[in-house]
Amino acid sequence: MKMKRVLSGIQPSGKLHLGNLVGALSNWVKLQQQYDCFFFIADLHALTTGYENVKNLPEDTLDVAVDLLSVGLDPKKCTIFKQSDVPEHAELHLLLSMITPLPWLERVPTYKSKINELKDKDLGTYGFLGYPVLQAADILIYQADLVPVGEDQLPHIELTREIARRFNFFYKKVFKEPQELLAEFPVLPGIDGRKMSKSYGNTIALSDPEDLVREKVNMMITDPARVTKKDLGHPEVCTVFDYHGIFNKGQVDKIAAECRSAERGCVECKKEFLADLLEFLSPIRKRRAEILKNRKLVEEMLVTGMVRAKSEATLTLLEAKRAMGLIG
After folding, report:
1. Are 187 and 23 in contact (CB under 8 A)?
2. Which pTM does this prediction carry?
3. Which of 23, 33, 202, 299 is most buried as measured by Cβ atoms within 10 A of its Cβ?
4. Cβ neighbours of residue 94 closer than 8 Å, sequence gap 6 or more
């Protein structure tokens, strides 16, 4: 029986961090065991907000590939490739942009929220407005059955379905309508308590050395109302407690009770979390060190992934061009 196909991507807009791991990559590692997975490094998408500074893009892209392997993705079980290596993404994006109504893009919820989040950037470009069309092309070019998303990304999947339906209605049925593979993606706070984001500079990178991880954990914000250990705690406002909820689930109720009763101090809580985090990161760090001994193998993996991705994408693009009358 043919496996269902899953498609997802991640931007190389800086070093991958714990938020990426718990929010997507850990799920990808599980999905590769059950589905025909295509995972791509979205370097074209990185240009939508980072077009003015591309100096580090090649190195960042390779670093993301290293991180993907470090967390447990296996190129024998999934297809890993770089988006721009498969130009069919961009060509289908162009074709779909011809039929996508402008109001569909302007109503995407993340459009205005991202502009507010990145106020220091000029996002008044077609590339930024039209990135959901490129995202739709990414999905439709591989006839993906499922796209792993959190609830905040559901409008993007619905827009992809609407574009597919519009194309199929105008021409002929070429595209599947992908379905969301809804998963609970924990939103991990950064070391300053805000959402962990490279744009905020508050991340713990998967590639951070141990001494830097220690430094960042020691900087993390705890309960501001606790001046001394004797003060009663409020774990619901503590960033470190949020991390315990992900990396130390078995003890989270005990930790909360001890915090509220002042049996546990913030320093002790940080030390316990740091020990758990370092243990969690240890196998990732070891795999990364092994991979970095021969980065040529990473480049070869991306070429192999590109060949398979391109073979699939070419078939879909030809069918779409034929439907639009561009070829006989």
Report:
1. yes
2. 0.92
3. 202
4. none
